[in-house]
Amino acid sequence: MKVLVCGGAGYIGSHTVKSLIQEGYEVVVLDNLSSGRRELLCGGDFILVDLNDKGAVKEVFRAHQFGAVLHFASLIQVGESYRDPGKYYAQNLTTGLNLLDVMLEAGVNKLIFSSSAAVYGVPETVPIPESHPLNPFNPYGRTKFFFEQIMKDYEAAYGLKFMSLRYFNAAGADPDGKLGELHHPETHLIPNVLLTVLGKQASLELFGDDFPTPDGTAVRDYIHVTDLAAAHVLALKKLLAAPESDFINLGTNRGYSVLEVIQAVEAVAGRAVAREVKPRRLGDVPVLLASKEKAERVLGWTLRHSTLEEIIQTAWQWHKKRA
């Protein structure tokens, strides 16, 4: 089967493209390279197209017969979404609506959507189950929430079938060393710790050491990007075999504090991490963990790479090689 991967030159998208090809799918990657990178293109056919250009997207669908679409293309920086919410609503929602309309016009009604556990907002319980109330507290999370509602409406009106996968912190790098994290600017914790160790920045900015957690730093759920990619492939198989829409968390049920991550990097790299404590960022909460029980039950998903040690070891090898 031929599938379209929107945002397939990005971090999670590229790892998923690799997994799809390994599973025998014919892949077409669509990306505008605004944040994706050509060096992360790892196979399949690449088409340089912006989802804002609806006419160009239609041409892609006219040229190919897709059985399904995987949609990763979006803006993802929470801090920037506070500073410029208009940019996030325009980009993340308009591009998604364009994609849905062109898909359905072409007779393609199956979509795997890269969502976020940010749709839940401040957690009432952790790990967060799929039944948790939806109350996103930042513009980025609201764009994911709104698009989930759009997909539900499109299902009721037009027969769209979708899997919306909700997760927090993708981390690590391809164990084969061919792919890794390449954000500019880099806002994620683990690569920033590694870049500090490698001397690419003077010190690590540690946002908040006064959270109500055992060591005072925020606790987050880190999932190896290869495990996330595998979950997207399993979700695709599930949707193709039994086309029923669903919302599924991808989590580990286990969190690590910022200090625990720093200490793990120091152990792997054998070097100290210089750091500077800054005030908490807007919207930061003490603990965020996503439950994995439904993913295990419905998708048959198994975590294979998501120990903190392997996450950091693979990321370290990737960033060290690039340095």
Concise account of the structure shown:
The chain is an alpha/beta fold.
List the SSEs and their pairings.
Elements (H helix, E strand, L loop, with lengths): L1 E5 L4 H12 L3 E6 L13 E4 L5 H10 L4 E4 L6 H6 L1 H21 L4 E5 L24 H20 L2 E6 L2 E3 L17 H9 L6 E4 L11 E2 L1 E3 H17 L4 E4 L6 E2 H12 L5 E4 L8 E2 L4 H7 L8 H15 L1
Parallel strand pairs: 1-2, 1-4, 2-3, 4-5, 5-6, 6-11, 7-10, 8-13, 9-14
Antiparallel strand pairs: 9-12
On the 0 to 100 scale, the average pLDDT is 96
Annotated CATH architecture of the largest domain: 3-Layer(aba) Sandwich
What is the fold named in CATH at topology level of the largest domain? Rossmann fold
Name the strands of the widest sheet in spatial order.
Answer: 3-2-1-4-5-6-11
Largest sheet: 7 strands, parallel
Distance between the termini: 38 Å
Quickly list its features.
3-stranded mixed β-sheet, 323 residues, 17% strand, UDP-galactose 4-epimerase, domain 1, single chain, Rossmann fold, 10 helices, 7-stranded parallel β-sheet, alpha/beta
Structure in words:
Helices cover about 40% and strands about 15% of the residues. It has about 325 residues and is an alpha/beta fold. It has 2 domains: about 1-170 and about 225-250, Rossmann fold; about 170-220 and about 255-320, UDP-galactose 4-epimerase, domain 1. The protein has a 7-stranded parallel beta sheet, with helices on both faces. Strand 5 (about 110-115), helix 5 (about 140-160) and strand 6 form a beta-alpha-beta unit. The radius of gyration is 19 Å and the shape is globular.
